[in-house]
Amino acid sequence: MKYDTPALVFDIVKKWNRARASVMTLRHGPVLTPVFMPVGTKGTIKGLTPDQMRDEPMDCQILLGNTYHLSSKPGAQEVADFGGLHKFMQWDRNILTDSGGFQMVSLLDLAEITENGVVFRHPADGSRLVLRPEDSIHYQNLIGADIIMALDDVVHSCTNDDARFTEATHRTVRWLDRCIAAHSRKDEQNLFAIVQGGLDVSDNGLRNQCLDAFLERADSIPGFAIGGLAGGEDKESFWRVVELCTRRLPADKPRYVMGVGYPLDIVVCTALGADMYDCVYPSRTGRFGTAMVPWGLLKLKSKACAEDLRPIDPDCTCRTCKNYSRAALHQLCKKEALGASLVTEHNLHYMIHFMREMRMSIIEGRFDAFVREFMRKYFPKGDVPKWCVDALRVAGIDLVESSSVCVQTEEIMDWM
């Protein structure tokens, strides 16, 4: 169902220091933020139906699709001929489509990047897909998502090439201008800009240069994303980029940290003032038989679950936890496709409701207590990573003073 409203209305309901609880109203209904957006790259969440995503107890309000993949197959025009992506997916709630920029990293060996745009070679048949900024916007206009993304020049965060980062940052600004000019459905679709600039957060560094340019264009941009992260960079650099961007981006517009799906990262980014997140992690890890739980991860294929009659999480209200034991899932995940579907459903339910609980803590003025309880469960020995302690201190939450936290002095790269 379409709402007879402006393309985007963003209302901040309550703040706790920098953390925000908001309502983002789009043409297909309200989205409560902070929000995690499940990824349906090719127009579907693998293993789940739209009804499972829409109905209680899941109640997902927004999904993600990918312009590159949808334009490759079945094709943007074919999706438009079907009535748009909402009808194609049988999804009457909100959709965000990525521009295809991330594929410059994930499909780097198949991409040629120039000032004009990107030329991709299809990995299966070698066919060429030309993706200029104008093409990306045209495809996204055809596909019909509620939020569309500007095409950006993406460089892997761990690349050691200052000249390439400089080129990509300034090209991203030039491409944004071309995207704004090409966007033909401003009354229905919201074009978000993506801040690039690598890990350079110095006063005159690339992130600040990109932010300066975007702020000059803020009247033409309904929302902003923080890109170029979640690629394996050190967490100290990660949070400092998020901190800079959330501090400088307009307070009255949504802020989207792209590619972030680990609960710890989301807690920190929300504390710093971010609103939106997406990642394939919850669904992908579910397909491999690993469940997300408040204390970390539960590997259902392990022998420890073989005779365990408890649900994944006794406090979880998802249909998987209501109907299946760990022992049953242990067998299903090893031998049946149903197992992957059931654990995926649990993981996405966990993420969506984790975000709602965090949102309610902001509204009720107890976000700091929520964060401390989350950390207590995730790090029962008190060994919270130093980067996390430092980031939360900047956000107004001092874990060291309030508890017996034993700060990790080394970076934890594989904390999941």
Automatic annotation (TrEMBL):
<feature type="binding site">
    <location>
        <position position="228"/>
    </location>
    <ligand>
        <name>substrate</name>
    </ligand>
</feature>
<dbReference type="InterPro" id="IPR036511">
    <property type="entry name" value="TGT-like_sf"/>
</dbReference>
<dbReference type="Pfam" id="PF01702">
    <property type="entry name" value="TGT"/>
</dbReference>
<feature type="active site" description="Nucleophile">
    <location>
        <position position="278"/>
    </location>
</feature>
<dbReference type="GO" id="GO:0008479">
    <property type="term" value="F:tRNA-guanosine(34) queuine transglycosylase activity"/>
</dbReference>
<dbReference type="GO" id="GO:0005829">
    <property type="term" value="C:cytosol"/>
</dbReference>
<keyword id="KW-0479">Metal-binding</keyword>
<dbReference type="GO" id="GO:0006400">
    <property type="term" value="P:tRNA modification"/>
</dbReference>
<feature type="region of interest" description="RNA binding">
    <location>
        <begin position="259"/>
        <end position="265"/>
    </location>
</feature>
<keyword id="KW-0963">Cytoplasm</keyword>
<keyword id="KW-0808">Transferase</keyword>
<feature type="binding site">
    <location>
        <position position="196"/>
    </location>
    <ligand>
        <name>substrate</name>
    </ligand>
</feature>
<comment type="subunit">
    <text>Heterodimer of a catalytic subunit and an accessory subunit.</text>
</comment>
<comment type="similarity">
    <text>Belongs to the queuine tRNA-ribosyltransferase family.</text>
</comment>
<dbReference type="InterPro" id="IPR002616">
    <property type="entry name" value="tRNA_ribo_trans-like"/>
</dbReference>
<keyword id="KW-0862">Zinc</keyword>
<feature type="binding site">
    <location>
        <position position="318"/>
    </location>
    <ligand>
        <name>Zn(2+)</name>
    </ligand>
</feature>
<feature type="binding site">
    <location>
        <position position="346"/>
    </location>
    <ligand>
        <name>Zn(2+)</name>
    </ligand>
</feature>
<feature type="binding site">
    <location>
        <position position="152"/>
    </location>
    <ligand>
        <name>substrate</name>
    </ligand>
</feature>
<feature type="domain" description="tRNA-guanine(15) transglycosylase-like">
    <location>
        <begin position="18"/>
        <end position="379"/>
    </location>
</feature>
<feature type="binding site">
    <location>
        <position position="316"/>
    </location>
    <ligand>
        <name>Zn(2+)</name>
    </ligand>
</feature>
<keyword id="KW-0819">tRNA processing</keyword>
<feature type="active site" description="Proton acceptor">
    <location>
        <position position="98"/>
    </location>
</feature>
<feature type="binding site">
    <location>
        <begin position="98"/>
        <end position="102"/>
    </location>
    <ligand>
        <name>substrate</name>
    </ligand>
</feature>
<comment type="function">
    <text>Catalytic subunit of the queuine tRNA-ribosyltransferase (TGT) that catalyzes the base-exchange of a guanine (G) residue with queuine (Q) at position 34 (anticodon wobble position) in tRNAs with GU(N) anticodons (tRNA-Asp, -Asn, -His and -Tyr), resulting in the hypermodified nucleoside queuosine (7-(((4,5-cis-dihydroxy-2-cyclopenten-1-yl)amino)methyl)-7-deazaguanosine). Catalysis occurs through a double-displacement mechanism. The nucleophile active site attacks the C1' of nucleotide 34 to detach the guanine base from the RNA, forming a covalent enzyme-RNA intermediate.</text>
</comment>
<dbReference type="InterPro" id="IPR004803">
    <property type="entry name" value="TGT"/>
</dbReference>
<dbReference type="GO" id="GO:0046872">
    <property type="term" value="F:metal ion binding"/>
</dbReference>
<keyword id="KW-0328">Glycosyltransferase</keyword>
<feature type="binding site">
    <location>
        <position position="321"/>
    </location>
    <ligand>
        <name>Zn(2+)</name>
    </ligand>
</feature>
<protein>
    <recommendedName>
        <fullName>Queuine tRNA-ribosyltransferase catalytic subunit 1</fullName>
        <ecNumber>2.4.2.64</ecNumber>
    </recommendedName>
</protein>
